Amino acid sequence: MDIVQIINDIDAFVWGPPMIVLLLGSHVYLTFRTRFVQRKLPTAIKLSVTKDPDAPGDISQFGALTTALSATIGTGNIVGVATAILAGGPGAVLWMWLTGVFGMATKYSETFAAVKYRVRDHKGDMLGGAMYAWRRGFEKDGRVPWWAALGAGAFALFAGIASFGIGSAVQSSAMTGIILSNAPGIPAWGIGLAIAIMVSAVIFGGVKVISKVCEKLVPFMAIAYAWGCIVIIGMNWEHVWPAICLIFECAFTPKAAFGGAVGSGIMMALQFGCARGLFSNESGLGSAPIVASAASTRNPARQALVSMTGTFWDTVVICALTGIVLVSTMLANPGIMEGGTIAEGADLTSAAFASIPYIGTPILVIGMILFAYSTILGWSYYGNRCAAYLFGKRGVRPYQALYVVVAFLGAIGVGDVVWTVSDITNALMAVPNIVVVLLLSGMIARETRRYVWEGNLDEADEAPIPVVEGK
């Protein structure tokens, strides 16, 4: 058995029924515990563009949201959706969408816990995430139980490792692939070097520089990509409703689609839909709360609501648009799957956007490059904070340097196996994050009732933010 097969077997195991039950079960459970906090989406969207300058924090609420979105709106929304359709069938799109709808409650809850238990470092900068929720959430008389310290360390370790895959290598590999498919004469090492320079120019400046870049980049690229999707949907209009029906049918019945050229089966649709849904919106992963902890917010509920909108935009809107575009394109062009020419997600997405004369392919190419680049920036901060937790401030610079090196290596030769490895590390970091959120769900539900449902969103949290000494 070769190494690729072993990795695929591990991926199938970690994303088997137990993980799906844990993920979807948590989404549904937290939806009820927060009294369907998704109902507050209009308020959350309004808060996301509202400044709160007098509140404690390092960056604006919008800056934290766009930085988190920069890490989630990426190849998962484009290639990831196509990969899920090819492997799990059209029904995977519905499971991705449902993962997003119910995942909004999980994103809210994990962010609430992260902001509630955030701390300051020796310079006054905010630190937060599941590792601090584990420690401060169960600390008594200045002592942290061994199991809480283990949960904190496990999350930081898995998230730090995951950042090199999902955040760096996968994205630079995707950038290289899309560039070479349209300009085959460019050497891969040259693309890798350009990526390394572009990444280095931003990430060494810290979260404030990253957030400023993302505030400008994310809205532009998201609107441009959504516009391209809407144009294709308009061109395939007569196939849109049949595409939606096929998505629902394949999600609940073992139906082979497009002559058996793509995956089929309820379990395959559910498995790949959930896996790619988490890869896309990261609800339950624990990544976005790391940067949300740096936001200027007067209480945890405000930033939790803002973070919740990230899952809405990422999966409920953009992934849904992508799924409908791809399935309707396959229905409109029945021969697209013949001959085995469409074997990878990138090929299917390219074929769909190529249907827009003149500008379709450039939109996809530019969108893929910007999405992947912004994801590299966002995940660099996540890994940065995990390295700081595990090794102290002395671990940050080595981590950043290694992160850039991995981005270069990803550009010059990492294949599809990286997607599989990223799926595995996603699952490994999701487990300690989901567990701590579930353990703290009573506190989250109680304070959500106070802040959100009793009309106290403008109330300031008077609890002091402790300072931790760096190593």
Automatic annotation (TrEMBL):
<feature type="transmembrane region" description="Helical">
    <location>
        <begin position="427"/>
        <end position="445"/>
    </location>
</feature>
<feature type="transmembrane region" description="Helical">
    <location>
        <begin position="186"/>
        <end position="205"/>
    </location>
</feature>
<feature type="transmembrane region" description="Helical">
    <location>
        <begin position="144"/>
        <end position="166"/>
    </location>
</feature>
<feature type="transmembrane region" description="Helical">
    <location>
        <begin position="356"/>
        <end position="380"/>
    </location>
</feature>
<feature type="transmembrane region" description="Helical">
    <location>
        <begin position="217"/>
        <end position="237"/>
    </location>
</feature>
<dbReference type="GO" id="GO:0005886">
    <property type="term" value="C:plasma membrane"/>
</dbReference>
<keyword id="KW-0812">Transmembrane</keyword>
<keyword id="KW-0813">Transport</keyword>
<dbReference type="InterPro" id="IPR001463">
    <property type="entry name" value="Na/Ala_symport"/>
</dbReference>
<dbReference type="GO" id="GO:0005283">
    <property type="term" value="F:amino acid:sodium symporter activity"/>
</dbReference>
<keyword id="KW-1133">Transmembrane helix</keyword>
<keyword id="KW-1003">Cell membrane</keyword>
<feature type="transmembrane region" description="Helical">
    <location>
        <begin position="312"/>
        <end position="336"/>
    </location>
</feature>
<dbReference type="Pfam" id="PF01235">
    <property type="entry name" value="Na_Ala_symp"/>
</dbReference>
<keyword id="KW-0769">Symport</keyword>
<protein>
    <submittedName>
        <fullName>Sodium:alanine symporter family protein</fullName>
    </submittedName>
</protein>
<feature type="transmembrane region" description="Helical">
    <location>
        <begin position="12"/>
        <end position="32"/>
    </location>
</feature>
<feature type="transmembrane region" description="Helical">
    <location>
        <begin position="401"/>
        <end position="421"/>
    </location>
</feature>
<keyword id="KW-0472">Membrane</keyword>
<comment type="similarity">
    <text>Belongs to the alanine or glycine:cation symporter (AGCS) (TC 2.A.25) family.</text>
</comment>
